[in-house]
């Protein structure tokens, strides 16, 4: 053990020197809702880091639904879904999610990470071919590795590179894996082109809508609605309940056969404890609010445009989502910017490798419908002065 501890202490020191060390910080929520938090030094910070895009995580309706279900079902589900952990509220949530998306069926998972692992592992065989966008979320990358299939990573958001690779062909079935909205850049996947290629090469597209559901398209129905695609063809979708829904958990949506297969084969589904029923109840309440939140979505997208217009010369990455990234490249610079923003009262963390590719450290700003225009203006001013000195 001593040599192991020595090795990892030395490694930790290296990470510190390179500006790559990660620390875990508790932020205490101020007032139980909204986006204000207090750090360990007692400083109040307005968060621009949360994926709570519609500010639902503290919403009174979600609280009421969760508390009512707590009174009825208790805290934990107590078992795996297939071994007695499934409650009526889980089934009601799955049914409501499927109806919202116009899909035949939905299967709930404990988290988005588990959903991606289970979906890919259950369907993709060792002899198949996976084509994955280079900037996909880590859970899709891990899922691809777990499947044992051959994996090619195509250039980010580049259907031509994907087409070139698909043309080369190979054995087994072809699968395309992509985020709908990329979690660290915020740009939207070229869905019409990906679906065309899937049709052309008899492939299936697995789309991770973690940052798209609730945020994009009419009714918050995500990337398909954003592009007004009505007949998507070979598409399977995954969504999370921990972002725009403001809760926790995830789901896979698609035809009935898909849910039947996942129930039978997805190991991360079969062997996990069912979602706490109170969270399923809160998610159900969130879905009702989220479907009708057109004004909030308009506000959110107006905030995005406002931020960019206030700082037109910033090193922004292209993005039409609430995820707005300032590409600083250098780890130290990203950390310094984040520290300056904290001094100005904003929580806006630096994202560094390996979460993003080497030399692409950035400030990842996420906007929420819970932010006001004056708050976004104040952030833009703080960013401007921090950029000038960092
Ligand atoms: N996919 C994407 C694109 C994500 O950003 C995340 C969360 N960061 C996940 C999947 C994992 O979801 P969860 O947090 O529910 O495990």
UniProtKB/TrEMBL annotation:
Belongs to the class-II pyridoxal-phosphate-dependent aminotransferase family. BioF subfamily. Pathway: Cofactor biosynthesis; biotin biosynthesis. One of its GO terms (molecular function) is pyridoxal phosphate binding. Its EC number is 2.3.1.47. Residues 44-381 form the Aminotransferase class I/classII large domain. PANTHER family: 8-AMINO-7-OXONONANOATE SYNTHASE, CLASS II AMINOTRANSFERASE/8-AMINO-7-OXONONANOATE SYNTHASE. Gene3D superfamilies: Aspartate Aminotransferase, domain 1, Type I PLP-dependent aspartate aminotransferase-like (Major domain). This is 8-amino-7-oxononanoate synthase. The keyword RNA-binding does not apply. Keywords: Acyltransferase, Biotin biosynthesis, Pyridoxal phosphate, Transferase. The keyword Transferase applies. Homodimer. Its cofactor is pyridoxal 5'-phosphate.
